[in-house]
Amino acid sequence: MSAKTTCGKHADAQKNRTPFLYPIQLEKVTGGSKQFYTWSAMPRAPKLSKVNGYWRTKAGDESGVYFGKVGEVPFKEANREFRKYLATLAVDRKRITLPQLSVAEICENHLAWVESHRSPSLFRQRRSILNYWCNHIVQTHNGRRLPGNAQQIGRLRATVITRPYVEQHIEHRAANPSRHTVTTPPAFAPG
User: Fold this and answer.
1) Does 143 share its domain with 125?
2) CA 154, 156, 157: angle at the middle one, nearest 5?
3) pTM of whole model > 0.85?
C-alpha cells in the first residue's frame, strides 16, 4: 500500500518523512472538504551508522551527532561513546519536571499572554472557560475519590491534575450547562 496523500497542504509533511520510518497504522486526515487516510510512522530505535566516513547517529538531533572518523576510531570505541550519549539523553528526559504552580496560577499566566497577544473576544472566551474550570469543585469520579476532593481545582497544584479531573469537569458542564451555552432544540437535534 502506498503512502500517497491527495491534499497539497500535507505534501510538505510527506516530503519530510525519512525512509527509515515504518508505517504502522492509518490516520484519518481532514484537508479542506476532503478526508483521506495516510500512514503514521513509528519511531525507529537509535542506531550508530557510517555516513561519509564518520560514525554518526540521528538520535536526539536530526542533523546528526558524530563520534569520530571510521578509519581512526574503531567501531567498539565509537559504539561505547554512542551508548554513553544515549544514556545522557535518557537522564535529560527524566530530569524534566513540571512547574510547581497551582492551576489558577497557570491559568492566570495564560490569560495574561492571551490578553496581550490575541483579540479581546478570544480573551473573554478563555477567561470564561478557565473561570469555570478553576472554580469547579473536585468530586468523586467513577466511584473514585480524587486527590483534592471537595476543593476547587484552581487551588490544586498542576502536577496533580489528571484525565479524570477533566472528564469529571466535562460531565459536570454537560449536566449543568451555563446559561450562555447554546443548546440545540430537540426538534433540530441530529437523530
Assistant:
1) yes
2) 115
3) no
